[in-house]
Amino acid sequence: MSSAAIDNDDIPPTQQRELRRVVTASVVGTALEWYDFFIYGFAVTLVFNTLFFPTTDPTVGTIAGFATFGVGFAIRPLGGFLFGHLGDRVGRRATLVITTLIMGLSTGLIGLLPTYETIGVAAPILLTLLRICQGLGAGAEFGGASTLLCEHAPPQRRGYLSSYAQTGVQIGLLLGTVSFLLVERLGSETVQAWAWRVPFLLSFALIAVSLYVRLRVAESPVFERMASDRRTVQLPVFDALRRYPRNFLIGIGAHICDTAVVYIYATFSVAYLQQTLELPRWIGLTGVITFTVVVIILQPVYGALSDRIGRKPLNLFSVVFTALFAFPFFALLATEQPVLIWLALVVAASLGLAPMIAVQPAFYAELFGARVRYTGFAASREIGAALGGFSPLVASALVIQADGEGWLVAAWMVGTAIVSLVAFAFARETKDIDITAADAPGARTASDG
Fold first, then answer.
1. How far apart are CA 74 and CA 66, in angstroms?
2. How many angstroms separate the CA atoms of 101 and 135, rounded?
3. In terms of pLDDT, which residue wins out, 64 or 32?
4. Entry pTM
5. Are 428 and 311 in contact (CB under 8 A)?
6. Residue of 165, 162, 167 whose CA lies nearest to 150
C-alpha cells in the first residue's frame, strides 16, 4: 500500500501516521491469523485424511477431515457473539489481542499432536477440540479488524482502506498454500512422518509478530468517544438483534456465497484435482496460489471502486457472475489441462470472489450502529460462515453422488449465490452513512416496540 493512498492535505499528519499503523496492523494481523485457519484445510487433503482419520479409502478419510474442517465454521458464530460482546464493551483492540492468542496457540498445538497410530481415537478428538478453538478466534478476528479499520478511516476512503482487512485474509491463504507447497517438496514420506507439522508450529512464532503490530495501534476513536460519553450498552448481543433484525438477516445471507465458493476454489479443488481427476498435487496448489495473488491485487481496486459507485452494485455483480460461471468452472477443471485449470481459478477470482469480499468490511460495518457494530458485524457474518463453511464436505459428497463429475457441486454454488443475491437485493446502499453515530439508519427505536 502506497503512503500516497493515505496522505492527504485534509488529514492531519498525526492522523495519517496512525492510519498507516492501523492498516498495517490489520493486514499483518489478519494475514497471520487466517494463515492459522486456512492451513487446516490444506492439511486435511494432504495428511489429516490418513494420519488422523485412517480408512481403506482416502476419499472417506478426506470427507471425515472436512467434517472437522467444518466444525471450525460451526463454532465461529459463538466466537462472534462472545468476542463481539467484548469488543463493544471493552474495546476493539483489546479483543483482537485475545483472538490473536487463541488462534495462534491452538494452531501451534495442532503441530504437536500425536497421530491416530500413536494414541488412537484420542487423536481426532484432540484435533477437533483445537479446531473448535480456532473457530472461536476466527469468529471475531475479521469483524474486529474491519471494525477498527472502518472507524479509523476517512468516510470517503472507507471502502478502499477497509479492503486491506480482506487483503490480509488472502495473504494468509497465500502463506498457507506456499507453506504446504514447500513442505511437499520434501517428499511424501517426509511429509507424513513430520514435515506436515512445520506450518502449524510456525504459528508460535507468528503470535509474537501479530501481537507486536496490534499493541502499537490506538483504540478506535469511535469507541473511545462512546466509552467517554458512557454510551456503550450492557448487552450488545441482544441490542443488535432487537434493533437491527433486518440488517442481521442481511448479514447472514450476504456471507453464505463467498464462504461456500472460496473453499470450493481454494480447498476442495485441490482434493478434487488430486483424488478424483488423479492429477499431480502441485497443479491444484499452484492454481490456488495464482488465484490468491489475483485476489490480493484486486482488493484495493474494488474497495476504491465501492467508494465511488457504492457497495451494492459490486455485491450484486459478483454473486450473479459466480452463479453464471459455476458450471464453466468445473468444465474447465474437467479438461485436466493445467493452463485451463489455472484460467478457471483466475477468472473466478477476478470477477466473482474479489469484488464481493473487497466490499465486505465496509458493507458489514455500515449495517450496524457504533454501539453494537462489532457484535452485529461478527455474529451475523459468522452465522453465514457456519452455513456456507461446510462446502468442502458437501462438495465431496456431491462428487461421489455424481460419479466424479462436478455438476452437482456447480449447482450447489449456484444455490448459495442465489441466497446471497436475495440478501444484497434487500440491502440499502450505505457508503455515505455516518458510522460514528451510535445507531445506523434503519435501527428500531424504543417507540417501534
1. 12
2. 13
3. 32
4. 0.87
5. no
6. 162
222-226: list long-range contacts, CB under 8 Å, 24+ apart: 222/151, 222/370, 222/435, 222/436, 223/91, 223/92, 223/151, 223/370, 225/436, 226/370, 226/371, 226/438
- Classify burial at 141, counting beta carbons within 10 Å of its beta carbon; exposed 0-12, middle 13-18, buried 19 or more: buried
Tell me which DSSP letter residue 191 carries: I
d(CA 236, CA 231): 11
Query: At CA 239, angle to CA 235 and CA 245, rounded to 5?
Result: 150
Cβ–Cβ < 8 Å for 249, 376: no
Phi/psi for 378 (5° steps) reads: -65, -45
- Which residues have C-beta within 8 Å of that of residue 261, sequence separation ≥ 6? 322, 348, 352, 353, 391, 413, 416, 417
> How far is residue 370's CA from residue 376's CA, in Å, rounded to a whole number?
10
User: How many Å from the N-terminal Cα to the C-terminal Cα in the chain?
Assistant: 46
For residues 93 and 219, the answer to whether their CB atoms sit within 8 Å is: yes
3-state class (DSSP) for residue 427: coil
User: Please, is 76 exposed, middle or buried when counting C-beta atoms within 10 Å of its C-beta (0-12, 13-18, 19+)?
Assistant: buried
Q: Which residues contact 313 (CB under 8 A, 6 or more apart)?
A: none
Packed helices 281-309 and 311-334: angle between N→C axes, nearest 10 degrees:
160
Specify whether the CB–CB gap between 188 and 281 falls below 8 A: no
In whole angstroms, give the CA distance from residue 292 to residue 174.
Answer: 6
Q: Is the pLDDT of residue 381 over 50?
A: yes
Find the Cα–Cα–Cα–Cα dihedral 79, 418, 361, 446, rounded to 10°. Answer: -70
The burial class, CB within 10 Å (0-12 / 13-18 / 19+), for 234 is: exposed
pLDDT of residue 188: 83
What is the Cα–Cα distance from 15 to 427, expressed in whole angstroms? 32
Q: Is the dihedral of CA 236, 238, 242, 247 positive or negative?
A: positive
pLDDT of 407 higher than 50: yes
pLDDT band at 445 (very low <50, low <70, confident <90, very high): low
Contact 94, 82 (CB under 8 A): no
